[in-house]
Amino acid sequence: MPASLGATLAACLLALAALVVATHALTLGFEAWTYEERRAVDLQQGRIAALPLPLQSSRGESLEPWAGAPGLPRAYLLDFIYTSCPGVCQALGSEFARMQASLQEAGLTSSVRLLSVSFDLERDHQAALAAYARQHHADGQTWAVAVPRSQRELDRLLGDLQVVVVPDGAGGFVHNGAIHLLDARGTLRGLFAYDEWERALAAARTLAQAAR
Amino acid sequence: MIAPRRHTAATAARWVLEAVPILLLFDPLRHVLESRMLFHMMVEFPLLLAAGWSFGKRLRRGADAIDAHGLLGITLASAVAAFWMIPAALDASLLWMPVQVAKLATWWLAGSLLARSWPRLSVETMVFFLGNLAWMVATVGFLYESTGSRLCVNYLVDDQQLTSYALVALGVLLGSLAVFYALQGAQAVDLGSSG
């Protein structure tokens, strides 16, 4: 059967239309060309939320943040850590210490909770977490350092918040997302870079006040 | 539909190549080829295209009826290449299995169509599409290079830098190929008119 030019052009148009439709879907209407940009759009539309999960704290306590129970904090500032991290994590630790001091000063320790969650289940047992908390002056109350109980629960938390952790090839890890602002039900309300901690804290205070 | 086999060794190699899309659903090969952006884009994509190509070459007819002058094959291949260079598409294929399957299938399909389209392409069409692809690949390379931050959450910045150089090099290669075919076409016209 000889090739038909008309049918060929129709098939080519179909292929191009498929490209446009797929690209439109992937980039959320030609807006988000990277995973992080997609995540920002999902955040804005309130589509990112973490289910409650039990965490083991550096003090050996079991925490269940954003479970919706009365008396729990109304806003969480959460970051992901691994205690053997030498560089940026140490700097972030100092930002969290400043946020902790600021919350204590303002008497807001019961409405905003700082939470550093380790994703290194292999190395970050209670002793390592306690050493990290001591080193950065985390009081364990306003600022808790904790770890999920199992790989499955950790993977679910990371998946819920769309955080991807990759090995950096030198024994450490790299991951997207810095400071996450979660409300009392675990919905992601804000994402902030390491050096935007003051904005993150202000947003958390506003969120806690609005929920009062 | 399928041509008879000749050499067992060549046949075995062909079977391995053609099994690549299936093998890439599972960890050993997938981890090797996708743990680095450079391998993902510069090794896996060409391999998938080659796997499809190898299959397409054995077909007696393929989609010839809707592939006049090889236009459909080259259009589909360009569309597939364009889509999978989007950073969000790379990440999505790593994080969601359906997207991975779509990636394997579209590259394979593009290769199997292109195998039969290629010999039927006119020089003008070949030069046009190769030139376009060269420009696109090099632009993506420059974009990857000029962005200081990570474009893919699954890959490191160093890897991205390396990939960007490779993309620019590939763009230059494709551009050279376009020029080569254009010159060859011009020569053929000269010979035709003088002889």
Describe the structure.
The complex is a heterodimer of chains A (212) and B (195). With 212 residues, chain A is α+β, with helices and mostly antiparallel strands. Helix content of chain A is 40%, strand content 19%. Chain A has helices spanning 5-26, 35-44, 88-106, 126-135, 151-160, 197-210, and strands spanning 55-57, 62-63, 75-81, 112-118, 143-148, 165-167, 173-175, 179-183, 188-192. In chain B, 77% of the residues lie in helices and 0% in strands. Chain B has helices spanning 8-23, 27-34, 37-58, 71-83, 87-95, 97-117, 123-146, 157-194. In chain B, helix 4 (71-83) runs parallel beside helix 7 (123-146) and helix 7 (123-146) packs antiparallel against helix 8 (157-194). The mean pLDDT of chain B is 92. The A-B interface holds A 1-5, 7-12, 15-16, 18-19, 22-23, 26-27, 32-38, 164, 166, 168-169, 174-176 and B 63-69, 71-72, 75-76, 79, 82-83, 86-89, 91-92, 95, 150-156.
